[in-house]
Amino acid sequence: MAQHDLHELLRSLRVWDPEATRLDPFDPDTAPPAPLALFTTWFAEAVAAGQQEPHTMSLATVDEEGRPDVRIVMLHGADPDGWSFATHSTSRKGRALAARPYAALAFYWPVLGRQVRVRGPVVSAPSEESQADLHARSTGALAAALTGRQSEELASVAELRRASEAAWERARANPGEPSPTWTLYRLRPETVEFFQGDPDRRHVRLEYRSTEFGWSRALLWP
């Protein structure tokens, strides 16, 4: 296996190469009064620009002992009730959310030099809605959910293969089979930040803040 010098590799990399990234100007004065509309526009523009997997996002939580954790998950939707994602309630992130129901999300779309950050409390949807969300997805998604035991220690890859094959058989035979611990979560935003990169490093950061009177907006130094 070839050996690589990490520092040399890092120095060789370029951020936002003009051949791969389009940095459009962003005038925050033209932004809509609420963040969901701007998120929807930016998401659609990321898709149109060819961003790979724009619906993936970082999810940060804190466990019962105050230790942070982060992982990549899939966005299941965004509407006036919040930004939604799903996992097993018994998983590591599910247990963290049960202990401290507050989280942060981060989207990164390098093809446009954009980030979106969302923070707020998290609530779980009713079981019926969680199961409906699961069964609206692919057979593979159901098979993965039926495999279960997420975040538990695994003895071997062979054990995973056996459990997965059995779960695939169940998912194909019964597409409506429930996964009792599968839970749809909604993050209800308190703040939503939109970051637009700039070639001269004058990045624009617009933060929406939830108040009792609606949304306020403020610019942040880059």
From TrEMBL:
Residue ranges occupied by any Pyridoxamine 5'-phosphate oxidase N-terminal domain in the UniProt entry: 44-166
Gene3D superfamilies tied to this protein: Electron Transport, Fmn-binding Protein, Chain A (2.30.110.10)
Entry keyword set: Flavoprotein, FMN, Oxidoreductase
Signal peptide: none
Flavoprotein is among the record's keywords: yes
Domain Pyridoxine 5'-phosphate oxidase dimerisation C-terminal: 182-222
Protein origin, superkingdom: Bacteria
InterPro entries to which the protein is assigned, alphabetical: Pyridox_Oxase (IPR000659), Pyridox_Oxase_N (IPR011576), Pyridoxamine_oxidase_dimer_C (IPR019576), Split_barrel_FMN-bd (IPR012349)
Cofactor requirement: FMN
Family listed: Belongs to the pyridoxamine 5'-phosphate oxidase family.
Keyword Flavoprotein among record annotations: yes
One Pfam family it belongs to: PNP_phzG_C
Protein name: Pyridoxal 5'-phosphate synthase
